[in-house]
């Protein structure tokens, strides 16, 4: 592979690393939020609230 090919490969690897890191950080943030809410809400209330939020968001999206 020539120098231009190596440069393009390096740029692609860097972008892939940035995107992968951002996705992992977002996943960790969501997981932390879910864990915090599960510790605050006893029993099945967490699931009830999550389902209610999903239904409200879906209703809002489909209503448009």
How would you concisely characterize the structure shown here?
The chain is mainly α. Helix content is 89%, strand content 0%.
Keywords:
64 residues, mainly alpha
Describe this structure as you would to a colleague:
The chain is mostly helical. The protein has helices at 3-40, 45-63. It is built from two helices and no strands.
Shape: elongated
| N- and C-termini, Cα separation | 52 Å
Give the uncertain stretches in residue-range form: none
Task: Report the order of strands and helices.
Answer: HH
Number of separate helices:
2
Structural class based on helices, strands and sheet pairing: mainly alpha
Largest sheet entry: none
Instruction: Report the C-alpha radius of gyration, rounded.
Output: 20 Å
Number of domains: 1
Percent of residues in helices comes to over 70%
Assembly status? single chain
- DSSP summary, beta strand count: 0
Arithmetic mean of pLDDT: 91
Content of β-strand:
under 5%
What's the SSE blueprint?
Blueprint: H1 3-40, H2 45-63
